[in-house]
Amino acid sequence: MVARPQHLFVVVLGLISAVAAPAYAAPRLLHEAPADAPADKPLELDFAVTETADISGATLFWKPLEVGNWRKVPIELSSTGVWRASIPGDAMDDPGVAYYVVAHGRDGGELAQFANATDPHPVYVRGTAMRTNEAVALRERGGKRSDFRVSGEYVDYRVVGVEAGSPDFGPRYRDFQLAYRY
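-> structure tokens emitted (182 positions)
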């Protein structure tokens, strides 16, 4: 039997891929990322780890959304068997936080798992925009929560210079407004 060149190519390609394949699977942290979170409460992030034999640990890096330095929190195995990290409640303020995750292999290498430092995952904080708007309104009103306004106008479009005793031409109206806001 004579071997054809295409059969030899397939066999050689199969041998190369078998030699080049790693002896272990890279660890993966599976994570359902939140889009938003409540204000002033710690953000608990849970992770499921595949191939735990090849991971020695993981780190969550987080920072405030607009400005700030990256801070790191270890992702630890909880008593329920879930890997967990927590961003403190005092950091959960307007507009939110951004984070990414890095796993540490047993060989000492770092493996990017979820997002990265240049493109982190944002988590927006719910309810803080209303607090910010209220703070701006308080400053505008000198610290007072309510105000009362009265306004009015009188408009007269009658023709000026008409002889005495002739009928008035043109509209006129009065407008008064009362406003109260809290």
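The longest strand covers residues 55-64.
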